[in-house]
Amino acid sequence: MQSEALRLQGVSKTYTGARGSRIAALLPTDLAVREGEFVSLIGPSGCGKSTLLKVVAGLTPPTQGTITYGWDRASRPGQDIGFVFQDPVLLPWKNVLENARFPLEVFGVGREQADRTVLELLDAVGLGGFERALPRELSGGMRQRVSIVRALAYDPKLLLMDEPFGALDLLTRDLMSDILLGLWSRSPKTVVFVTHSVEEAVYLSDRLVVMSPRPGQVKEIMEVDLPRPRDPAVKDTDGFVHWMRRVKAALDAQPVAS
Amino acid sequence: MKRWGLVVHYVATLVVLTAVWQLYVSVGHVSSFLLPAPLPVLTALLASLRSGQLVSATAQTCLEILVGFGVGSVLGVALGALLSRSELLRTATGSLLLFFQTAPKIALAPLFILWFGLGLLSKLVLVVSLVFFPAMVATTVGISSVPGPFVDLANLLGLRPAQRFFRIQLPLALPDIFAGLKVGLVQAVIGAIVAEWMAGNAGLGYLMVYGDTTFDTPLLIAAILMTVLVSVVFTGLLVRVETRLLSWHAAYAGEGGSS
């Protein structure tokens, strides 16, 4: 029995609009994530999946409910939580190495140790030799890899990813999924991954949280029992096709927003 | 090659302009009191250079511009950064700042002279007040336009205020800040000259008044030419610093890479 990394109880988020109108971004949600589990949140835009992620990261407080973490939180919010944004959010004046070790620098880790950790991770994502390149000299996929390395550099307890491959082309997306799986099998981390790609979600996840929009709420939670380790060949199996169909059906069953 | 082509261009333009000037003066029989010919102006320029008059005046004006611009931009950026941090400070100082920002600073010059004397200080105060506001406004604009995800990143990593400012906000705001500083620099030159005009016994502005009142038009024009040169040199220096600091920025990448 694995221990829990994260537990959400009745967590909801309501934004106050311009004229005092209140918009429910996320209805009260319960969710437990096991340690080392890869959980994906999937749903159309406006289903509150990004909001949920920001609440878990502590970037915005929940309107109601409690979040329990399976470890003692560090004093800095991000020191034990890694966050990969949809855009790479790299500092354009810093090169790849400087960007990737930025959190370690901020946390006061020694330069030598920081470089060792970061260079190893850069190698693992296929960016060895690009340490001195500036972000604008890299492709979108390479930039996003740097941002993943930055989030993993300080070995967080929990990795949150907000549609990290959403802005990339299809071929690059597939490559990024495999790189992410490679990293994850090297050191299994608890991952909460937000996406609107059914294939990506099925391929990567242990568990899938299907959400529906306006107001955002959890619609269905599925346990994806495809064997691990997974590689691209799994996408041709009947099991994979079956899960793709199931998830699509769950998404389509929602009332279509006009 | 390209560089030399540019120099030839500049020289050619200068030659043509001077020729037109000379032609106008000699064909139109213009009084040398209204517009002296190029040669007397050049003579006056060289004479005042040799006597040290023009050199010390230029040095004085450059000092006022340099110190005033430096102090004004540092203060402007600092207050801009503080304002964008604190909503309370913004509302508390908003109307006061708006009052001083919209007040024509040149009109305040006599007051500054009254308060800070006829010496260097009153001139510096005027220059600082002219540089301060563009720098402050540009900084608040630059910081408030830092994209949301960068703010999230800073929050996630729990950056302290100084780290947040120097490592994220300031570099991202630099393009805006430099736009403000360029406006401020032009204002600084105007401020220094006007202050010397009104009250002073040194500087290019004083030399202009002196040339004007002693009917020494060649000296007046020499001082004006020197003012233009000072302005061009300072702007050129500022652009160099900007290009150097923003070499990472896509818009400056071409220039930064080739030099």
Structure description:
With 258 residues, chain A is α/β, with parallel strands linked by helices. Helix content of chain A is 33%, strand content 25%. Chain A has helices spanning 49-57, 96-100, 102-106, 111-124, 140-152, 170-186, 198-204, 238-252, and strands spanning 4-16, 22-34, 38-42, 64-69, 81-84, 158-162, 190-195, 207-212, 217-223. In chain A, strand 8 and strand 9 form a beta hairpin. In chain A, helix 7 (198-204) packs across helix 8 (238-252). With 259 residues, chain B is mostly helical. Chain B has a single domain, classed as MetI-like (MetI-like fold), CATH 1.10.3720. In chain B, 84% of the residues lie in helices and 0% in strands. Chain B is built from eleven helices and no strands. Chain B has helices at 2-27, 38-50, 53-85, 87-102, 105-116, 120-144, 148-156, 161-198, 204-213, 217-245, 253-258. The model of chain B is unreliable at 255-259 (pLDDT under 50). The chains are: A alpha/beta (258), B mainly alpha (259). The A-B interface holds A 54, 57-59, 75-79, 81, 83, 85-87, 89, 91-93, 102-103, 106-107, 134, 136 and B 147, 149-150, 152-153, 155-159, 163, 167-168, 171, 248-250, 253.
